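Researcher: Let's do a round of design. I'm pasting the structure tokens now; please hold your answer until I've finished.
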């Protein structure tokens, strides 16, 4: 092709057609410029397509991780609701001074000493933030949702840390005040096995009564009755924002 254009230029010069040569040269320059612009446009389009594909991969990971988080939130919500409801009933029994007839209910509230930890998968979001593609969602609805999502994650983490820290303190104190042999045996050994032991059932219940009447035990029950509702509300807020994050990512894909 280059030889072809060169041949035309040489022929025009040899024939002394300077005017036509200049017009031809200008036309050739215009063609070259157009060719360069087309090449740049194609290159830009290829780069945009490449960037868009990589961004979609990041968003796909965030969507997958958010779905994992929501499944975990669902399980934690169910556990907290069950334990919270037990603690509310136990609190009512305490206020009504009906602890003895609700001793088993009070013992069931020992599950309030369980530590709950919501551990979200933030890998996809952190990877996007540390990449060159984060700016592509900056100041968008998705950006605002992700910021709110991770603020709620921080709030949940702080509340769980505070509650679990309090539990440890109360549990450590109880361990210094009570021999929990009978309590633990009832919790982990089958009833038919316990019936073969020398310890009578009345002794187990007497131990339960003393243990559940302690201030530390009741403090945890009362705190759980309030705290679990607050945590469930935070879980619900996070779940709602998570749903919107997924919808926004889906709309971006579409």
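Researcher: That's everything. Go ahead.
Model: Designed sequence:
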């Amino acid at each position: 092709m280059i030889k072809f254009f060169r041949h035309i230029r040489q022929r025009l010069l040899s024939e002394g057609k300077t005017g036509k040569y200049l017009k031809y040269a200008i036309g050739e320059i215009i063609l070259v410029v157009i060719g360069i612009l087309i090449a740049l446009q194609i290159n830009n389009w290829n780069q945009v397509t490449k960037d868009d594909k990589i961004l979609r991969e990041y968003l796909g990971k965030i969507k997958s991780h958010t779905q994992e988080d929501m499944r975990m939130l669902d399980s934690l919500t169910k556990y907290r609701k069950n334990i919270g409801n037990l603690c509310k009933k136990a609190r009512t029994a305490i206020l009504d001074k009906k602890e003895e007839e609700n001793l088993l209910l009070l013992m069931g509230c020992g599950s309030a000493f369980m530590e709950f930890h919501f551990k979200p998968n933030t890998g996809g979001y952190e990877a996007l933030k540390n990449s060159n593609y984060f700016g592509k969602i900056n100041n968008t609805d998705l950006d605002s949702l992700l910021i709110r999502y991770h603020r709620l994650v921080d709030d949940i983490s702080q509340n769980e840390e505070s509650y679990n820290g309090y539990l440890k303190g109360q549990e450590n104190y109880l361990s210094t005040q009570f021999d929990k042999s009978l309590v633990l045996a009832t919790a982990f050994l089958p009833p038919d096995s316990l019936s073969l032991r020398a310890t009578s059932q009345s002794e187990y219940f007497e131990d339960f009564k003393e243990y559940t009447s302690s201030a530390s035990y009741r403090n945890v029950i009362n705190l759980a009755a309030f705290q679990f509702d607050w945590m469930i509300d935070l879980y619900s807020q996070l779940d709602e924002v998570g749903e919107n994050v997924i919808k926004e990512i889906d709309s971006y894909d579409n």
